[in-house]
Automatic annotation (TrEMBL), chains A, B:
Pfam families: Methyltransf_7. One of its GO terms (molecular function) is methyltransferase activity. It comes from Fagus sylvatica. It comes from the Eukaryota. Keywords: Magnesium, Metal-binding, Methyltransferase, Transferase. One of its GO terms (biological process) is methylation. Coiled coil: none annotated. This is S-adenosylmethionine-dependent methyltransferase.
Amino acid sequence: MAFLVKGGNGQYSYSNNSSFQRGAIHATKELINEAIAENLDIKNFSSSNTFRVTDLGCSVGPNTFVAVQNIIDAVNLKYQSQGHRTPEFQVFFNDHALNDFNTLFTSLPPDRLYYAAGVPEYQKRCWTKPLPAYNKGRIHYSNSSDKVVEAYAAQYAKDMECFLNARAQEVVCGGLVAIIVPGSPNGIPHSQVFVNMGSELLGSCLLDMVQKGIISEEKVDSFNLPTYFASPQEVEAAVERNGCFHIERMEMVPQEIPSGNSSTSRGRVMSSHMRAGMSGIIKEHFGEEIIDELFDAVHKKFDESSLFESWNRN
Amino acid sequence: MAFLVKGGNGQYSYSNNSSFQRGAIHATKELINEAIAENLDIKNFSSSNTFRVTDLGCSVGPNTFVAVQNIIDAVNLKYQSQGHRTPEFQVFFNDHALNDFNTLFTSLPPDRLYYAAGVPEYQKRCWTKPLPAYNKGRIHYSNSSDKVVEAYAAQYAKDMECFLNARAQEVVCGGLVAIIVPGSPNGIPHSQVFVNMGSELLGSCLLDMVQKGIISEEKVDSFNLPTYFASPQEVEAAVERNGCFHIERMEMVPQEIPSGNSSTSRGRVMSSHMRAGMSGIIKEHFGEEIIDELFDAVHKKFDESSLFESWNRN
């Protein structure tokens, strides 16, 4: 189990900078390799000669294929080291039905040594209901009332339970689940987590639009971003409560925040990342027409803020 | 095993008329139901409680989902009639990687009682090489030299062998394969099969373009449509030669040719169907720029020809 949280702040190119996920894959590669070498219990299933890998939330390549190849290489090594012949690999690429599977399928590595299938869903999205607590003037739990924070934490616990139960039905005895989730370190207040500060900044841009009469106050009050950055303690508690798995290993994975370059500010990069991830649910609630203006405002506010400095501090 | 060949010529609407495949599905539904009731040997695999269905060449719904639901209903009935509880169904939708899986996935029936996965390939396309016989002035084996006909028949035999070997590795003991292929009745010369006449008409339109100097003669001589309409005897021989399956049933399925209506001629409908099926390989060989003019010519030539009358005769 790996956590992506804040980390170093090195100089790097725009192209590296725009591929957050690749960074996560590299950072977790070694962890996954070691977990497979130490904890995968192949004697339980090596007789079937078929090894199945599922990428839950695969999105579109090439990162997807790098992650899968890492796993296959590590499993192959394990089989060889124990004197078993190489199994047949079946890889299930899972994401929401709206994911671009056409691009995924046409970019599959032609020299891959596995069977590939796309799976448009494994389970329903959990968080579909409105928050059962009134969150006036905010779109997130960060810096909000205890009631709102509790509602978010309860929804997170429920979603994890739903996720772990589904995996418990799928994974063979001796198999492994690697979970890479955004999180926050134990003991850090929610309001001091960098990504939560980003969500607050987004919320303040929406409130500015209320001031300008572009959207209504009610719209903002009834909108809540469905993201929660759990602590390792909370994840551990969820796994123990579920009882189907035990944690072999849990690590914080350093994550670099986007840096700008001469032609692109850090605020612009950050706003583009947020737009890529959140514009779908924002459109659904507020309508498409506010998107350009909203993320332009996010970009400017990030550049004017001292948020990136806070990343270095904690 | 079912063959789609020429049949009745009823009056029907454009919307029915434009869904050839739906006709094939309805026509084969009863055949598949009976084969499942009589020949599916569930005692061999009912202990696993998972039943897998694969649609090879699924294309895009809704026909796809109708075909799959027919199979699931028939299998459920069989399980129930033998006192087994309903199995968990897994459906694998297979087609070339370029198939529109995005549309397929987003149009999956929301109330389906099966797990769905998309599989971008099961095997390489077999026919990728040029024909090993010179086919001057033609793009098909119909009305061509014995050498060309033999080359087509040999390629067909090879492709069927490749197809059957792949299925032999996948299908469980007691399982069934339903093959719906375009074919021609025993004893009918290739040149009198309606679809082959259509291919000849297409070829003659390409030759007209050579006359006009739009494409070169060599281009036409080096192009061969990769379609072969085998007789039931040839299919039977292929299955026997392969030796992994035996034929439980083989039937001719009546197929209606497209009819026009007040605003759309039969030639237009036929040309649209041919364009939908063949424009890909024609573009690849001749370039995209000839497509509009070519299929306009096909449309006009169909309307001027007596080909539709020949459909009624044989």
